[in-house]
User: What shape does this take?
Amino acid sequence: MTALLRYQADLLLRSQRWLAPLLLYAVFLGVGVRTGEPVLGALGYTAAPVLPVTAWVVRICLNQEPPAVRNVVAAAAGRERAHLAAVLAAVACATLLGVVAVLGVTAVSDLRRVGPFEAGSSGLLATVVCVLTGAAVGALTTRPLVHSRGWSLVALVLGSLLALVTTGSPAQAAVQAMITGSRTASVTMPWPALAGALALAAAAAAVSTKATARRE
Assistant: This one.
């Protein structure tokens, strides 16, 4: 699995397709985050756009190989393992991006009412929740479940939006906790949301991985 993860990550980096989601995320942060803002609110805004970015990166990783190459990799390592490695590589890259953003935003935000460690920890957890939820959205809105690129993109956008605004969504709960904490100057660790996001991502990955063995 380690070799597969390295292979998928190398493909992503060499393709430069990661530039588009990275620039999208940078635009979100540039527009929405200002130096000196309350740290919890800024971190909530930092976490939210990680969800569609992660979904986009998962979609890229699952479609970056030509069909012939995908078949060769599947024959050598197993179709399910190769598919899962693509999802995990995307999650790892999105997590790294989110962690860097959280550290940067924490450093430039107002920490007078909240300690940096508590704020940074809650921001990291909220970001991981959004990454996992975005991974679930990405895995369920592209091949092998949705083959049409147009419909896949529509499903990804709608799925990301619903995951951010629907009550009961792990991502919505985590981001809302950050916003509420900013108003009350109290830090809430989104552990229940993290557990829900883990379960959701695991279920989506399992469905997508099983489907690729049957439908491709």
Summary: The first helix runs from residue 2 to 15. The CA atoms of residues 52 and 161 lie 8 Å apart.
